[in-house]
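Session log. Operator J.P. requested a structure for one protein chain; no other inputs attached. Running the standard single-chain path with token output.
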Amino acid sequence: MRIAVFEDNHEHASRLTRLIEIWGESKKIEISLYIYSSAYEVSDFSIYDCALLDVEMPGISGIEFAHELRRKKIDIPIVFISSYTEYSLEGYEVEALRFLDKSDRHFEKKFTECLDRLAYEINNSINAFYRIANERKLISISMREITFFEVINHNLAIHTLSGSFVERKTLSQLKNELPKQFIQIGKSLIVNVLQLVQVTKNQVTFYDGTKLPVAPRYSNDLFRAYSEMM
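Structure written below.
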């Protein structure tokens, strides 16, 4: 879970860091945390799963920055953390997940609950990214672009609209990382139902014409997911 925190107050930033690290350890979630004092320090938001924004920041306010992200069609979850609660209603305009008051005496409890909600939203978002560490580089792939995952000779193949990638991972490990549009259809296959043009009890067909077999034990879950997503 890759979290970008925008907080120019060192004391508040340290507090958030401590709380996030404690939460990550308790949930057994691997956290990559990035602390920034200004929104201008970041040019590419595609590598982050969520943003925690202070309202008052140098150069551009958290509210203005959130509007900028939404104008650029960046749909990651946003949480405002500020003592300026008069801005809380503006959070609705950018579909912020939460607006937390730093001075609230129950802040730590509410922040932990907010992290729980963030994890849920990220794991179930159709706009999320799948990330691969490949040759010392981090590759980010939009979940929408992935057609299906396939285990081949103990390797995981990630098939996308523009090509395929391979990494070392089991299907059981993968299933814990995927949002709800990914459904297992066989012992070694997981498909993105948003990329399917036709579903039968024995086979799925993708928009590019690719066909994959469906094992009987997975057909009910597949039909249910396909009907819900479509």
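Operator note: Residues 10-27 form the longest helix (18 residues).
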